[in-house]
């Protein structure tokens, strides 16, 4: 016999309501139907779920465990229905590390003002496609080449590369650094989502590489002073941390910022998002304040 959501919902309602009579009223069915649903659930699972007397009821030990899982499954089912029924009234944008950098907050504000009927959700997914391949998002901010023919993309801007280093690093006193300055260093990167690669340096002068798999681990490694990282400007604005400073790598090529989406089934708001983010990237950045510059 198959497990059914109505059986789980019946169990949860009985426990929350406190009696079979109140559960029947809550569910809009007869008390006999409530009893049948609970009995069928106990047959499917092969365990007793409730201790019942004429005056009270309480979950058994097995019932406590089933009740917790039932609440989780019902919440997931409700989310599934809500996702399906809201359809194109919600736009989920994925990103691996730093969203849209300095434009993140302004993008959210302008989107809400221009498209109030389409809810914008930012989803962090530390994968190569920022959640697209996993079905977590409708649109993804990526800073590397999108290889698969399954995805279409548009370049909305470019970002300078910065070197992240410990505050006491010998290079921290400079305003900018070069790729040659970093050639003898240990470089930490995320191989799934990180933008720097050995190809930034000539074959005879490439830094040693160490891999990590999350921005927090990346920052923690850099803060020790034993390694450095090269990253787009978006990381600078989204991840300011004590013990770490960022210096622009003045001779490194800029990083293209792309929005990617499933080519066969784009969200109707895709081109609106591309246009808005492109508009923001074309806006000149505010001048850096004196307090933010290295002395």
UniProtKB/TrEMBL annotation:
User: Lineage of this protein's species?
Assistant: Bacteria, Bacillati, Actinomycetota, Actinomycetes, Pseudonocardiales
Which residues are in the HTH lysR-type domain? 3-60
Highest taxon listed in the record's lineage: Bacteria
- Give the transmembrane region(s): none
Q: Which residues form a coiled coil?
A: none
Entry similarity comment: Belongs to the LysR transcriptional regulatory family.
Among InterPro entries, the record links this protein to:
LysR_HTH_N, LysR_subst-bd, WH-like_DNA-bd_sf, WH_DNA-bd_sf
Protein name, UniProt field: LysR family transcriptional regulator
Keywords recorded for this protein, A-Z: DNA-binding, Transcription, Transcription regulation
